[in-house]
Amino acid sequence: MKSPHEPILSRYSGAAQKHGYVRDLFNRGAEHYDRIGRIGFLGTGNVYRRRALQKAGLKPGMDVVDVACGTGAVTRPILEIVGAEGSVVGIDPSEGMLGEARREVTGEGVDFRLGRAESLPVDDASCDFLTMGYALRHVEDLAEVFEEYRRVLKPDGRLLILEISRPKGRLGLALTRFYFRDLVPFISRLVTGSQDAREMMVYYWETIDACVPPEEIMAALERAGFRNIDRRVSLGIFSEYRADR
Ligand SMILES: C[S@@+](CC[C@H](N)C(=O)[O-])C[C@H]1O[C@@H](n2cnc3c(N)ncnc32)[C@H](O)[C@@H]1O
User: Fold this and answer.
1) What is the CATH number of the domain that holds 49?
2) Whose CA is nearest to atom 23 of ligand 1?
3) pLDDT at site 2
4) Is residue 173 part of a domain?
5) Mean pLDDT for the chain?
6) Nearest-atom index, ligand 1, CA of 42
7) What pLDDT score does 46 carry?
8) Pocket test residue of 94, 164, 200, 201 for ligand 1, highest count of atoms within 8 A of CB
9) Residue 43 — very low, low, confident or very high, per pLDDT cuts 50/70/90?
10) Nearest residue by C-alpha to atom 4 in ligand 1
């Protein structure tokens, strides 16, 4: 078993408790997530997400699964790109996040379902493109999840994972740590008045800090059988992992 990070014992008592903690955290923070995103604090705005999807080869008419859709920040640009001929299924384990998504992202081609990356409520070989935005850190086991992604992708399907990576250089790390660990939680609390919003953003950094390096994520993709794996990085921290099934 290869977890993306060791259990964070200041938050929950062991690996078995991680999923429940994360689900509860996002349920409590859901109503604030988009507001924090709008002031720019989830690292990447809609323009970035949209461009990453297009660069990775998302096209009109495709059928897409958006894992960890949350409030729909990746689902929305997917829907715009795939258009009326395509479709997107957004999947997330947090009822709270899904509630926001169902309210905010509507249209013929979109369907939101409760579920987890480890066991997707989707048929075998049913999608052309699979995305996961800023949530790989929260899964239990990389190998299990990548196997599941291969199950639901069509033979010529494509994968895009967006993630924030811990910078390697000392200065970059110090700046990123200040931004995500100190500034973002402080401003999130200030703007929303919510301790839950603050905790959601503190945990955001804690998992970035604890996550295995990009090389291990790419090696796990390769072991799972993905091909043409590459990683594009912006500003040293915003990673786009792309691979063919
Ligand atoms: C930081 S949000 C990202 C939301 C959205 N993709 C975005 O780009 O803003 C992380 C999401 O991952 C979800 N999540 C946590 N554990 C998960 C799992 N095991 N499988 C799928 N989604 C998970 C959370 O409920 C939350 O909605």
Assistant:
1) 3.40.50.150
2) 68
3) 83
4) no
5) 94
6) 9
7) 81
8) 94
9) low
10) 70
pLDDT computed for residue 41 by the predictor: 55
Domain range for 98: 44-165+214-244
In-domain check, residue 227: yes
**Model pLDDT, residue 1:** 66
Q: Which atom of ligand 1 is nearest to the CA of 74?
A: 8
Distance CA 144, CA 142 (A): 6
- The pLDDT tens digits of the residues spanning 187-242 come to 999 999 999 999 999 999 999 999 999 999 999 999 999 999 999 999 889 999 99
Distance from Cα 193 to the centre of ligand 1, integer Å: 23
**pLDDT above 80: residue 44:** no
Read off the pLDDT of each residue in 28-52 and give the average, rounded to a whole number.
83
- Residue 137 CA to ligand 1 center (angstroms) comes to 9
Task: State which of 26, 34, 74, 120 you would mutate to test the pocket of ligand 1, scoring each by most atoms of that ligand within 8 A of its C-beta.
Answer: 26
Residue 175 CA to ligand 1 centre (angstroms)? 25
Domain presence at residue 203: no
Q: How many CB atoms lie within 10 A of CB 225?
A: 11
Q: Does ligand 1 lie within 6 Å of residue 68's CB atom?
A: yes
Is 219 part of a structural domain of the chain? yes
Q: Is 63 in the pocket of ligand 1 (CB under 6 A)?
A: no
**Would you state the pLDDT for residue 115?**
98
